[in-house]
Sequence to fold (474 residues):
Amino acid sequence: MNIREGLTFDDVLLLPRRSAVFSRKDTNTKAQLSRNISLNIPLISANMDTVTESGMARAMARLGGIGIIHRFLSIERQVEEVRKVKRAENVMIEDPVTVPPETTLGEVRTVMRREGVSGVLVVKEIKGKKQLVGILTRRDLLFETDDRLKVSMVMTKNVVCAQPDVSPEKAKELLHTHRIEKLPLTTKEGELVGLITLKDILERMQNPMSAKDTKGRLLVGAAVGVKDDTVSRADALLKAGADVIVIDIAHGHNLRAIETTQLLRKTFGAKIEIIAGNIATPEAARDLVKAGADGLKVGIGPGAACTTRIVTGVGVPQLTAILDIAETAIKLDVPFIADGGIKNSGDFAKAMAAGANTAMIGNLLAGCKESPGEYILDRGVAYKYYRGMASYDATREKIEVDGGTDGFFRSPEGASGRVPYRGEAAMVVMDLVSGLRSSMSYLGATSLKEFTKNAEFIRMTDSGRTESGPHGVK
Ligand code: XMP
Fold:
């Protein structure tokens, strides 16, 4: 047998080359997530239950990337997480949260908490049409102690509204003139058709890099498994506005993963954007693209919380997996994600240089404020909990949720533990992207395509690795 050598990030460095790029600012980090979706930065938060729910997904999209909501939730809860992202920032919210006038204040508080909104529109349903009769905001509820009161007794009745075709400038002017934060859009007959909020306008101004859909809403993805409920889950997620569905299975070159890709493509046609994975060989890339994938996820065992390679002896060192698939992906005209094993911006740059279109991050983002993982405080130092989705802890919880097991013993293929608390995701993302931009300037590239084209790797020895880190400095 001819045994090839596999390499990973720490085995190589990128060769610097003649460059006319003087500043990181002159580099463009626009990247293709899948055939029909592009991002402003090539970063994705992992579909793991200690990494991505709506908070992280919102942060990632605002920074120009995307988050993939994990699938270890009921369909209803996962849909809710997608909707929270879609509602977070809009040119116009098409289906604002509404309540009837007879709702109690206690019920409204629950709705506002569940939907993550700071106010609701009060409507009467007349002949199937929603007639706007009032508005209730967090401020109206602030000092109201009697939760049994009806909304109609507390709401503002004379609501400042605009027509659905109001221009953004006019909307801003109305919000300013009336010192209000929400501008419902109604037809001449008073039917509610949308909502413009001050928060959305401010968010747009503060986050010019945001990754958005055609309606101006933040991009978000959601993961599905290869289970009996996959089609109904995908259907509900698409209806909630998910831009991309990630088929999340440890071995993506399994027949069930191929069949699930085919099934989703057949069921939803062009209405679904599918990313399939995880894989590590060009054959797998070809099979999944043939089955209907619009994007691929590459990485078997490189992740920080992965033990697959130790437990099974299977895997491909991540840089080799990326290099191998890059060639095939170009021929297939399909973008792919480098998933797992990125420890710093240098690894991130090497993944992009090797030909990945984007990178998925678990560990580094798990320590952020926006991740759903638990905080741990140990002797004054803050950490967050992070676990592999095939870890003992995660599988035990899944069994509890899914109800029972088939009694067949399966070794865990993931670890769990704590990672340093890293503050806001923006800090981690900015650090990664800044390193990537600098790397691009070393290689004389202004775009990621050019960066890959200009990349030449050099292998290093253990001494080279020692030399690469800080040394001799106390
Ligand atoms: P990082 O290194 O960014 O990697 O933390 C995140 C990726 O790790 C994968 N993952 C797992 N792999 N067992 C594995 O072998 C697991 O339990 C596990 N959980 C997550 C996944 O691809 C993720 O995006």
Summary: The pocket of xanthosine-5'-monophosphate is lined by residues 46, 48, 278, 299, 301, 303-306, 308, 339-342, 360-363, 388-391, 413-414 (CB under 6 Å).
